[in-house]
TrEMBL record, chains A, B:
It comes from the Bacteria. The keyword Oxidoreductase applies. InterPro entries: Nitroreductase, Nitroreductase-like. Gene3D superfamilies: NADH Oxidase (3.40.109.10). GO terms for molecular function: oxidoreductase activity. Residues 14-192 form the Nitroreductase domain. Coiled coil: none annotated. Belongs to the nitroreductase family. It holds the Pfam family Nitroreductase. Keywords: Oxidoreductase. The keyword Oxidoreductase applies. This is Nitroreductase.
Amino acid sequence: MTQFENNNFGDVLLNRHSVRHFDKDVKIPREELREMIKETITAPSACNLQAWQFIVVDTDEGKKKLHEFYMPFNNPQIDTSSAIIQIFGNTLAFKKYRALWDHMYEEKRISKEELDKVYNTFLPLYEHADKTMLTADAMVDSSLAAMQLMLVARAHGYETNAMAGYDAKKAASVMGLDPEQYVPVMGIAIGKPDASAEELKSVRYPVDDVLKFE
Amino acid sequence: MTQFENNNFGDVLLNRHSVRHFDKDVKIPREELREMIKETITAPSACNLQAWQFIVVDTDEGKKKLHEFYMPFNNPQIDTSSAIIQIFGNTLAFKKYRALWDHMYEEKRISKEELDKVYNTFLPLYEHADKTMLTADAMVDSSLAAMQLMLVARAHGYETNAMAGYDAKKAASVMGLDPEQYVPVMGIAIGKPDASAEELKSVRYPVDDVLKFE
């Protein structure tokens, strides 16, 4: 298993906070970024569809593209972070689905009966779904992965900022993806914090404001 | 800080897997469930809107309600888990927003200038947003929290199953929420695994299938 720099679950989860100003001199090796995504995609997804797509932006040219669709209040994060991981939902992920389950059957991880159940129960739900459902499912899957990524980054010794303010109509095409298939979910800036910058500590509503028992 | 039963980040994150058959004899105290939600809502959200709502279902009457809108393939999880935490997105969370930021200003955590910035930059984005954007934002916020909840549960010594197959039109009203304001995101069954049940270990696409560098 991966040796995490910070393997203290309570610290990773409870002390995570948004960082908007990073140390510009820190570069994260691509192999480590790839490893982080690999850990990230252990996240669950609806019917294991894994309707997520990651674009790791760590070059000046890539960051220029982000400026084309992000609102200016995200500039500090984009310009100072080591990388931005732009996450898109893949609304047509179900098209890869048969191949995944066929593979599981070939490897004898599931029986013919289980394979047929997938083909006859879950797959038709997606093949007949409308765009709204496919978009919602892809956004939920991608958000689950996004949360894992923020925690994984912290376990690797980095901090993050999840960025939501962008022109949703432009994001996919600027990043070279088909905007009919891919919906932007969020960008995650990652790096080492700039120690000299002051970061706002956000507060939460009291838990009983958002919790009921039945 | 909370003393987690399992505080090993790598184990919590990388060895989490879906459990569909739970030990029916295990009851989780409501105070512990409440504590788990409190840890869960350290998740970030777009503009700190915290557009999530949790309904913890741990009674037979509550579970009966879930059966009214969940598809039958979720029955094992609903019937055997200690509790199901039904998560809804609150599309009108921005209406509580002024109170939250006023509170931060009163406590001198932010300056008048920062308060004005929130009022003039972020709040109008929501006040003028259409239903589609408000729904998408609420679903993303809630999914970030959902992922934290699954990890928090495992750190407390439990396992989970995220359930997505339900009648989205019925969920809110059956649970006593206004369906115009609240959108269902997912249910999370939680409990101790039934040691005698076999659980399918799911696989993931290779990381390079869903990853590009820019």
